[in-house]
């Protein structure tokens, strides 16, 4: 299935408009594309207790997973700055959990981007083998495929 990257970036840009960032003023939008072609967006949501803030990327991913999605093709993330917006370390670990092979498009305010896979953004990510029968994937789908060579994670 073909999907124009501009559409993914535009979806992330629209989500950025909904950012709740009164403390940092740094507004971020994300858009996540499933393998089946469905789109989920997210924005950063800050809190007066700063550590409770959730990044745009995790909002998009958690919305998707809680809607039954498990297979992801690409994610775009954009801020309003001239620098490319790159996911924080916590988000990288969360992205790798579900989609190590997913393409991550890190955009600037002009819609230009750098692209890297989720696993490429987090070498040697933390990995815990799932407990036998511990996962409960919707629709009886298998858990995400994991690379078995630690050097490739
Ligand atoms: N933030 C994101 O939403 N995504 C990123 O990739 C980087 C950081 C948010 C968290 C916080 O609301 C603000 O940007 C400043 O750290």
TrEMBL record:
Its EC number is 3.5.4.5. GO terms for cellular component: cytosol. Residues 130-153 are annotated as: Disordered. Its cofactor is Zn(2+). Keywords: Hydrolase, Metal-binding, Zinc. Substrate binds at residues 44-50. Residues 130-139 have a biased composition (Low complexity). Pfam families: dCMP_cyt_deam_1. The active site is at 57 (proton donor). It catalyses: 2'-deoxycytidine + H2O + H(+) = 2'-deoxyuridine + NH4(+); cytidine + H2O + H(+) = uridine + NH4(+). One of its GO terms (molecular function) is zinc ion binding. Zn(2+) binds at residues 55, 88, 91. Residues 3-124 form the CMP/dCMP-type deaminase domain. Belongs to the cytidine and deoxycytidylate deaminase family. This enzyme scavenges exogenous and endogenous cytidine and 2'-deoxycytidine for UMP synthesis. NCBIfam families: cyt_deam_tetra (TIGR01354), PRK05578.1 (NF004064). This is Cytidine deaminase. It comes from Desulfotomaculum copahuensis. The lineage of its organism: Bacteria, Bacillati, Bacillota, Clostridia, Eubacteriales.
